[in-house]
Amino acid sequence: MLKEERQKYILDQVHLHHRVLLNDLSDSLNVSIDTVRRDVKELDKEKKLKKVHGGATSFGFMTFTKDDGNIYLKSKKISIAEKTVSLLSDGQVILMSGGTTNMEVAKLIPKKLVLTVFTPSLHVAMALLEHENVEVIFLGGKLLHDAKFAVGGTVVNALSQLRVDLCILGTGYLDAEFGLTEFDWEVIQVKQAMIRAAKKTVILTVSDKLHSVQKYKTCDMTAVHTLVTELDPSDPLLDSFRPFELMLV
Amino acid sequence: MLKEERQKYILDQVHLHHRVLLNDLSDSLNVSIDTVRRDVKELDKEKKLKKVHGGATSFGFMTFTKDDGNIYLKSKKISIAEKTVSLLSDGQVILMSGGTTNMEVAKLIPKKLVLTVFTPSLHVAMALLEHENVEVIFLGGKLLHDAKFAVGGTVVNALSQLRVDLCILGTGYLDAEFGLTEFDWEVIQVKQAMIRAAKKTVILTVSDKLHSVQKYKTCDMTAVHTLVTELDPSDPLLDSFRPFELMLV
DNA sequence: AAAAACTTTGCAAGTTTTTGCTGTTTTCGT
DNA sequence: ACGAAAACAGCAAAAACTTGCAAAGTTTTT
């Protein structure tokens, strides 16, 4: 097993569970505890995670529901959210997934915009309820403890009975070749159902997550109609997505 | 368990309840009181909380009035919540409605109690997700803007497919003659479905709401199995409920 | 193609951190 | 002021960490 693979696995685990034990890692990776220790030390130095006694945690693990510690990331997300909101129009019925970027969208929706929004995300639902003119319908199901996101058959089932105008997908890793990927199996089931239930799909991604691939695949790039990033649509970083029939915003 | 996890839990508890007892922490975290003491001491040094004799409080505890503004009402509700939590046992499947009293229950559930909870309340769901051992299933539907509570056919329908051990109804006005009443038609539809879906029903009511009646009727007193108030079960204020076959707590 | 230089990995010895336990001292409510 | 509960200090075992080193594998140089 390559060092790269190991470190990627470690990062995945940290992102997924917000913490890992060195012992567990050394166990599941079949390498000595020292190797894992060195890997984690490196990742810590690169600020990809936080090393702690006995293991590692993701950044923002300790922050008490206070958005992000990362100012740059946050301003990128707001920029994306502003662009996204401009795509909405009165009377639309839309789907919104979870994630911090979608949270910003939910907050930025104009007070007078009349919408019907379906969502499986507790946080997004909460933010949307601040808007009087937005009818919020929660897609109920088993809630994930970390993501506060409903998953499972109930959600997928409810989605199969919908046909909405727009689906706005928040978090996710994007690559021209591999499409949209995630590191949680249950989440991609829901996202796939969301895409099926919508006439058009919008993906929100901060440029950091472009050209990166995770374990599970949600959909191909061909399923996406609009890609919103904080970059200028003419930015060369987006070149690899131009062959697809999609709108860059 | 990592030290960071413990400290996050402690901070969460402090932020949630504005005070914690070291004994409770050591109990629910399954570590010695000394370890908790050292953790709290550290967090105090980092100005993340304020250590006091026997426990810790969050900063700005005295100025905190989000809940009710009414400190007496709040302490009544906490007392009710404590009694209610003692009715729960490992492995139960329960239903919880919304309301501030039920919120206190959600917060006070011991960390090691294993439960499955169905709820149509955003706030309760959110609070329950703080507990690792509680599986939370949200009953999805149209959300009421003020109550952050799901109502409508979807919820009632989902409830009709359930048969759970216990239903805990929070807010509500109670009267021996008129039973349980509410002022929202859509809410009582859901509460009625909740009662039907449960083997036993527990009502939580602060004594202020005893012997008061609202516009719409949820159910008769005969449908109630347990009544939890902040009063002593022998209090004369409860006399009018004694003719019914119910447990006073 | 062999040698040299470098990287990666696992091991072992020694150090530090963490944690629970033991008394002892301090604090608090009555 | 008294007894109980809480805080503290010191100790010891266990777990985690550090460092140095050598074997195995890679890459670069000659």
If you had to describe this structure to a student in words, what would you say it looks like?
Chain A folds into two domains: 3-57, Arc Repressor Mutant, subunit A (Orthogonal Bundle); 71-248, 3-Layer(aba) Sandwich (Rossmann fold). The first copy, chain A, is 35% helix and 22% strand. Chain A contains eight helices and 15 strands. Chain A has helices spanning 3-17, 22-29, 33-45, 71-85, 100-108, 122-128, 153-160, 185-197, and strands at residues 19-21, 50-52, 55-57, 93-96, 115-119, 134-138, 142-143, 150-151, 164-169, 173-175, 179-182, 198-204, 216-219, 226-228, 247-248. The longest helix of chain A is centred in the first third of the chain and has 15 residues, at 3-17. The first copy, chain A, starts with a helix and ends with a strand. The model of chain A is unreliable at 64-69 (pLDDT under 50). Chain A binds chain B through residues 19, 21, 52-55, 57, 61-62, 64, 120, 122, 125-126, 129, 132, 135-143, 145, 148, 150, 154-155, 158, and chain B through 2-5, 7-8, 11-12, 15, 120, 122, 125-126, 129, 132, 135-143, 145, 148, 150, 154-155, 158. The structure holds a DNA duplex (30 and 30 nucleotides).
Which key phrases capture this entry?
DNA-binding; Arc Repressor Mutant, subunit A; alpha/beta; 7-stranded parallel beta sheet; 2 domains; homodimer; 249 residues; Rossmann fold
Tell me which CATH architecture of the largest domain in chain A applies here: 3-Layer(aba) Sandwich
* Quaternary structure type: homodimer
Number of domains of chain A: 2
Largest sheet of chain A: 7 strands, parallel
Low-confidence stretches of chain A: 64-69
The amount of helix of chain A comes to 25-40%
CATH first level of the largest domain in chain A: Alpha Beta
Briefly note the CATH topology name of the largest domain in chain A: Rossmann fold
> Which protein chains make the most extensive interface, counting residues with beta carbons within 8 Å of the other chain's beta carbons?
A-B, 31 and 30 residues
By CATH's scheme, which homologous superfamily of the largest domain in chain A applies? Translation initiation factor eif-2b, domain 2
**SSE class of chain A:** alpha/beta
Strand order, biggest sheet of chain A? 6-5-4-9-12-14-15
Strand content of chain A: 15-25%
Rounded radius of gyration of chain A (Å) = 19 Å
The total of beta strands of chain A comes to 15
Shape descriptor of chain A reads globular
Order of helices and strands of chain A: HEHHEEHEHEHEEEHEEEHEEEE
- Terminal residue distance of chain A: 39 Å
Mean pLDDT over all positions of chain A = 90
